[in-house]
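hey so i finally got around to running both of the ones u sent me last week. sorry it took forever, my laptop kept dying halfway thru and i had to restart like 3 times lol. anyway pasting them below in the order u listed, first the sequence line then the structure token line for each. didnt double check formatting much so if smth looks off just lmk and ill redo it

first one:
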Amino acid sequence: MAKKILIANRGEIVLRVAKTCNKLGLEPYGVYSDADVNSPHIKYCKDAVNIGGRLPSESYLRIDKIIDAAKELNCDLIHPGYGFLAENYEFSKSCIEEGFVFVGPSPNVLELSGDKARAREVASKIAPILLGKEVSSESDALNLAEKIGYPIMVKAVKGGGGRGLRVARSTQELSDAFISSTKEAEMSFGSSRLYIEKYLEDPRHIEVQILGDNYSNIIHLGERDCSIQRRHQKLVEETPSLALTDTLREKITQTAIEIAKRMKYNNAGTIEFLFKNDNFYFMEVNSRIQVEHPITEQVTGIDIVEQQIHIAAEEHLQLRQQDVRSRGHAIECRINAEHPITFAPFPGTVTRFIPPQEDKNTRIDSVLHSGYSIPSFYDSLIAKVICFGENRQEAIATMRKSLSSFRISGIPTTIPFHISVLNDKRFLQGDYNTSFINELKPAYSKSGEIAAAILWQLPKRIRFIEERGAVNPWARSRFLEVESLDMMEKDYLQSRGSEN
């Protein structure tokens, strides 16, 4: 096996890949932009090259700069992580043409899966899909929408991460969505191609983790439920999904394998489905390692990054389906530097960062530290908390404890939101879908300001609550009556008086 690997990314995924590299005897190398000169991810690399720029388009999305860095560092492999160039067909092709091993799917697979219209066509031979197709003009979109009926989902053919995606419930909304999606798709992906499909109201979002080698061997590592999202971006994931019976689980995982085989899929990836009323519909393929992959690792004991590297090295898949044995339950909460009510990004300086203590049931993926200044140019994800239990109740209890002991000061985060979710009746019963956040009770402006103020005093606030045995208003579900928001104000004012 080659000895040097360039991790062409930033943030916690660099640490994650580097850990596996060290385990396998590989030397991890990195890159960083001008905005990331002091980024913590650099210290986890044996060496790193400044690729300039501050915006992603000037740095992490520049194929030429990544290739030049790999040459300068004399690397043998290139791991793209997730986001940026991870699913870019041209990047994988360039890596191979320049003599590097690309740790990801082949260019042919990326070209197919990255074209969502083509991927839908292939998957439709195996799995149900929602009515829809690619459209070349606004008039085409309007005519097709009349045939299949509103509401309609507008999607970028080359899209991902919720960008270029809009829901339209009328002709006017579709006209507006077509224009805005076209612009965003062109800006984000360099392609203005769009397709529309029937919008499924309030589904679950379930994805199946697959591994495939270059010899047509494909297995699955179970499913993940990623239904708690904001603006089509995931916030909480868990495995296994409470929505699936054993029969449905067998059906959806086998369908995922058949789709992957039809695509001649290799390396790690996910087959994504929408699920409602015991029916599932193919959505798309994510041809990379996912942000939420740790929960699958927790229940299976399988290092997915390690499997990626072995597959890229032209080795046969080291696992058979019968070797995959899941146990227990795992949950991941994505901690973002965002306001927990509005989800507005909050870049700034982290004055205090003390994560929960890690043990066999608690894993923290983050490269943050006290004093680090979060740039405004990148995704707001700053940490991931992954908790395991022998059952779902244990996993939830461990996650509650971990989040309550997390100390982040200087910026607001989504930790209070996650605490609220873990105390929500519908989440506890497993009765939730992708509309979970949309159905939260609105926070009035006064309560919103109180909530924001609480954020800045979170460490003191938790100690105060523990000392007086009071109920933390953040632990009250926002699905309860508005009085819970009034309690937030009352309790906060009392806590301020105590602290003074």
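and the second one:
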Amino acid sequence: MQVSHVEAVDTQAPPLPWSAVWGQDAAVDTLREAASDPFAMTHAWLITGPPGSGRSTLAQAFAAALIAEPGDEQVMRQVLAGTHPDLTALRAEGVVITIKDARALVERSYFAPSAGRFRVMVVEDADRMVERTSNVLLKALEEPPERTVWVLCAPSEADLLPTIRSRVRTLRLREPDVADVAALIARRTGADAAVAEQSARHAQRHIGMAQRLATDADARRRRDETLRGVVGVRGVGDAVAVAGRIVQLATEDAKALTAERDEAERASLLRTVGVAEGARVPPAVRGQLNALEDEQKRRATRSLRDGIDRVLTDLQSLFRDVVMLQHGRAEGLINLELEAELRGLAGAWTPGHTLTVLDRLGETRRNLEQNAAPVLALESMLITVTTGRTP
């Protein structure tokens, strides 16, 4: 536990642009030092760490330190807001980063900085590049222009091709403790300490997810319903029903995340082209509106798949708890609220059965990455839960 560290963050917040970075002091020190002498540093970086560890926040802060002159807080804030012309940040709005997007990024990387000291190219989801797309970046990473810096973000080095890894300097982030995340969430959101602790534990220290759970009772309800449904599976019929319900809940979660943004984008587009709220959309604007809706649909597909992936992560925590109980360890359980049910499973199953279920969860995740139908993939996985056998 490092509660003292959290308290230090409260009273000694680092200056811009690093003030939004939390719990990554060693990484901040490395990048601050690099930014202090940028013309002698590595020009291609890879920031790795588990989801929620702050990879994108750190990349944005590094970009601000590189683009702005030292002490120029106005430019730093512009970079942190994502509006500076010398920052290009790519995040996969669809399931993967497309070759088209990668080529556009590489082309832009060869432009000289227009206003700042450097042009910075941030790829927030570098693990979402297939091999062909990764190959588009290779030359640009190996020999970037003198005043261009690449910053890739991914969960781990293993998520990228060896040819990419050999061209970057890797910076690994630390995982915060549950108590640290809970203290941060309580401070940021004003959530009750017990809710903040539960949210940090259920999110497995993912800061963004913990904040959402702490502030969204519906998200907490959906998670609880999903896990209790899986624990209650007793046969094939249950597996089919629960799989369908998981996808329904994940869809609701995805809609909750994207609906407000989608509506704001639509209103902004109509306002930009001079269409009043509630007015009929003229034919000349429909093409732009259709293009926006197509992009939003692709983003919704990604959001749904991310939501199902998050369900699988929650289920892994569930069966990880069962394994711990089967080996006589009750400390450090993630799903304390289900301890009685988990003890029942631990007594009814063999450790081998539990490990089979965990293996099946990993296989299900890989199948979904290959565009397997979510309901069918989850049904197959849940049949393994109830029978211990792979269909």
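quick thing i noticed on the 2nd:
Residues 178-215 form one domain.
anyway thats it, ttyl
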